[in-house]
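ugh ok fine here u go
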Amino acid sequence: MRKLSLTFVLMLSLSFFGCSRVHKITYLSDPPGAIISCDGKRIGYAPITVSYKLKDSQKELELSACTAKWVSGAKSQVKERVLPIGNRINSKSNYLFQRPEHPDYEKDETFALEQKKVRSMERANEAAIQAQEADYNGGYYDDGYYGGGGCYGEGHYGGNFSGRGAARMTVHH
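structure:
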């Protein structure tokens, strides 16, 4: 029975972590911030990366028609196309949408700067969250160490627990 369950776990992990082939395309726009839609479905604001899962024998990727639309109303399109990818396990490419001649270029530049600020703030927030999680997760270990403090009911616990392997706790009433 143990051999059967080990085989099952191994097969399951290979399905999750095996050598599946993926091709990533980063859609860019000049100026950045155009809304990218492919096959009539909105993907997001450029730059954005989309992953396409490939079959083992697949040597090319059929891509649907895509459109970039800026806030000014300017549009750029690319028709359906076939992208040769060969046998690479993980590959990537970029596609740049150039903004055509259209009025209100300043609107698109302003929006691009706003998007850049938003992404910068998102990265800063993510870094802050990761730092907080590292602090929080760094305080508790399964070996009995707790580095936090707080109140429980009428008493106080926490504060200066130390030592690995044996937690010490003082309760003040």
